[in-house]
Design brief:
alpha/beta; Rossmann fold; 6-stranded mixed beta sheet; 4-stranded antiparallel beta sheet; 7 helices; 10 strands
């Protein structure tokens, strides 16, 4: 499903460059559950944002589901991401002007789904995450843990082909974290490809493979 070849990302400072990722070559098959691990500053979140097509400032080759992402224009990449990808951001990225219900509905609005069906799907998702009572609240009225649950709900509501998660349980208490990881396991068994960035060996144990980065280099895949 995913093939990276020679991916590099750097920032220029006058005549010098600071590399964030160096010569990343990696294949991830459809249906895998992969964890990206490594120390802070290793490039984990940067790699995840490239995989999610949120970051276009890199060099190398990136094939996604048969599409040459490196050759695409920004609008084409965005359309591809909306069609296939669910993303759980470390900092939530909820829209402050929308309610919980409206935030969760966003990915469905990109699909050809009738409004009545969207309502049913969102209501089922609210129930699954036990946040029905929060549906009319705004993000700034929620705790960090509640915002994280909403972010996960939004990422999975449209049954994406691939789910990318950046520290998905970082703001949840242990029981909520376990429930999210078990949900990911069920999604994976049903066919969803999952790639998570995590510092947790426990969370990584839910997957099948660990990819390790250090100083921007791939050291173990």
């Amino acid at each position: 499903m995913i093939r990276l070849k020679g991916i590099e990302k750097y920032y220029e400072h006058g005549p010098s460059r600071t590399y964030v990722l160096r010569r990343i070559t990696l294949d991830i098959a459809e249906g895998e559950f992969v964890s990206i691990m490594g120390p802070s500053g290793a490039g984990k979140s940067t790699l995840l944002h490239i995989l999610g097509m949120y970051d276009a400032a890199w060099t190398g080759e990136f094939e996604f589901a048969g599409h040459a992402v490196h050759a695409m224009k920004p609008k084409q990449r965005a359309a591809l991401a909306k069609q296939y990808v669910g993303f759980v951001f470390q900092s939530y990225h909820l829209l402050d002007t929308l309610t919980v219900y409206e935030n969760i509905e966003i990915p469905l609005s990109y699909r050809d789904i009738k409004k009545s069906d969207r309502q049913s799907i969102v209501c089922d998702t609210l129930d699954r995450f036990a946040i029905v009572g929060k549906k009319d609240l705004y993000p700034n009225q929620l705790s960090g843990g509640q915002q994280q649950l909403v972010a996960v709900a939004r990422a999975v509501v449209a049954s994406p082909t691939i789910l990318l998660a950046d520290e998905p349980t970082g703001n949840l208490h242990s029981e909520q974290g376990r429930e999210i990881m078990e949900l990911f396991t069920r999604l994976n068994r049903a066919g969803t490809t999952i790639i998570q960035v995590t510092h947790s060996d426990v969370n990584a144990s839910y997957g099948q493979r660990v990819i390790r980065l250090r100083d921007g280099w791939l050291v173990d895949a």
